[in-house]
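task queued by scheduler; priority normal; single chain, no ligands, no partner chains; default sampling; output format set to structure tokens
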Amino acid sequence: MLEKIKASLGANYIENTEDVLQDIIEDMTSIACDISNRKQDDEKLFPYINKAVRSEYITRRSRRITFKNRRKHI
């Protein structure tokens, strides 16, 4: 799943952030399984997990960039 999500992120993926991405995948998979009462290996969950992971990853990336820019102006 990690490689598929990295590929779907395209230019939004930052090199050497596999650990961050893996943590998000684990969190979103856990939430999806809890809500749906499905097992982790149920492929029907992948589109939802993929979308949630990409959204969270891009949001975290945007926050980090915004935070860095704010620190430059202080």
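post-processing summary
- The chain has a mean pLDDT of 88.
- The chain has one domain: 2-72.
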